[in-house]
Every structure is written in C-alpha cells, then in structure tokens.
C-alpha cells in the first residue's frame, strides 16, 4: 500500500455475544483490502448511550492505515456491520455491531453521509479512553489534544476489561 492515512475506528456491540462481535470485527478490519490494522485498544464495558432499556456495550478503538478514500472506507465498515446482521431499529438502540470512522488522517469531512472527526467522539468516554490507550499523543484536526478532551470526559462507569 502506498500513501496511507492513519485512521481510527470505534467499535461497539451489545447484542449476540458483544465481546465476540467486537473481536471478530477487529479480525475483519485486519482483512480489509487496501488497509492494515495497527494498534487496537483493550475492550471496555460501557453503559448504553440513549435508551437505557438495553444491555451494556463492549467497546474498543482500532488504528487502521488505509489508502481508501473516506467514503469507500465507510462503505467497507458498513459492509462489515451488515455481515454482523446490524439492524437500525431506533437511534442509539441495541446493535450487534457499530463501526464508526472517528478520524481519517488529519481531515475534516462534512458530507451528508459522513462527518469526521466523529461528531460525538469528544463527549464519549468509551471512545476517548480506548483511543488514548493506543494514541495518547493524538491531536484532532482543529489542534485539540486528546489529553485535553480526557480532562473534560472522566471515565465514569467505563470499565477496562481484562484480556
């Protein structure tokens, strides 16, 4: 692969053996053409965002180096979600797998289909803390440091799981 960008993918699941859903998705990210899986965080248990009448989530963040453009990468991520039988029944509802493109190099993207950096990442401990585990030096495209975001977003009930 030539001319790759460093991207970060957020993974989450709370249905059908969430731990295995996330681990399998990490393997599937590693197998994507024109991509190379870099570092991956530990798994974390988090409370659901939005409707509380659903199970806790298992989350992780993965570093992905890719030569794909952002929209094509999004298509591939959604394809993996579909392989996990992802159903979108309600906003922030339960799901077998959620793959979010958090960062795409140093790009800021705002299209109808895609917003990067992910619009909610700075508010979500289940994104920031796993991201800090694998990329503590990270700066967002606007120059905001990950360290600064962590100071504003405590772990709360987020729990790092043993291997």
Order of helices and strands: EHEEEHEEEHHE
Q: What proportion of the residues form beta strands (DSSP E)? A: 25-35%
Structural class: alpha+beta
What is the CATH class designation?
Alpha Beta
Number of domains: 1
CATH superfamily: 7,8-Dihydro-6-hydroxymethylpterin-pyrophosphokinase HPPK
Number of strands: 8
Overall shape = globular
CATH architecture: 2-Layer Sandwich
Cα-to-Cα separation, first versus last residue: 31 Å
* Helical content class: 25-40%
State the helix count. 4
Instruction: Give the oligomeric state of the chains in this entry, treating copies of one chain as homo and distinct chains as hetero.
Output: single chain
Tell me the Rg in angstroms: 15 Å
What is the fold named in CATH at topology level? Alpha-Beta Plaits
In this structure, how is the largest beta sheet organized? Answer: 6 strands, antiparallel
Calculate the mean pLDDT score and round it: 93
Which residues sit in consecutive blocks of at least 5 with pLDDT less than 50? none
